[in-house]
Fold:
Amino acid sequence: MIKEFLLSLGTLEEWKLSIISFFGLIVFFKVSQYLILNKFKKIAELTKNDFDDFLVTILSQTNWFIELVFALFVSSKFLNLGKGVDDFINYLALVAFIIFGAKFSQKLIKYFSYKKFVKREEEGKKTEASVVKVLSNIADWGIWVLAVLLILQNSGIDIGALLAGAGILGIAIAFALKEVLADLFACFSIYIDRPFEVGDYIVLDKGKGTIKKIGLRTTRIQTLRGEELAIPNRKLTESYVHNYKKMERRRVSFEIYVDPKTSVKKLEEGKKIIGDIIEKEENAKLYRVSLSSFNGNSWTYKIIYHVTLRSYKKYLIIHENIILSIRKAFDKKKVKFATDIHKIILKDD
Structure:
């Protein structure tokens, strides 16, 4: 009975061809894989490009299931298995091909995204590195969603109705997670517009500090006191952001009050002393020194200069050096500071 059943599917010669082709293809795949791998390994050792190393890794990880299905697909064509069995084997081969294509695309995207991620990390562009990683994960999910849809479509399922249902479900989820999605889109807005990057010092309406991480939903800021603030990305794109890291120079303005009995000669000397001190200070550029006012209690020097560095700590050191040098020079020239300063500020009701 079994013999008769097998002969109904094909003659003895057809069965021989089918079996030989099945096992022959399995052996061919393994031998070819071994020879090609050895060839590629030798080439990879001679080149500086790491893409050939990536191809070697792909070839060495070829799935045995895909090889088995392909061999079954070819060998089945020698037999008369019937429409149902042929359709099933064809469907199985198509699924294997889709899975192979999805895995290959996934590894290809991971290879290029990893190279891009490492490059951005080495350049210190941590924001771009984070976005590259996020986009890679989204592409990874997108490939498998597309693969599942292709498999379902070829299995006879109406994916049009499925997509329509998924669309309605997606709208409902979007309403439920509108704040999360707003933060996600804000993350991409920050990446494209680049108002700040990791390492920048920013000042917001309700906080200030150094950017530590820009995530999908929140941006982490470390304040001067040491605590960490987690601010939703949408709040950052909706508020005014003062980015001091992008400031090319810092404008510094301060006043010095001297004794009202100081002579005109000493006032002129004091003005020159202040200007010389600032001009001698490295990374400081004098803008203006002037006697701005006299109110009976003091003469007022108005000093404005620029610090050509972005660092807040270095600005403090430069400013400290300047005011200490002014104090020492004034003491040496016997220019007295005013000791009784009163300011009356009137405000309208």
Observations:
- Residues 2-168 form one domain.
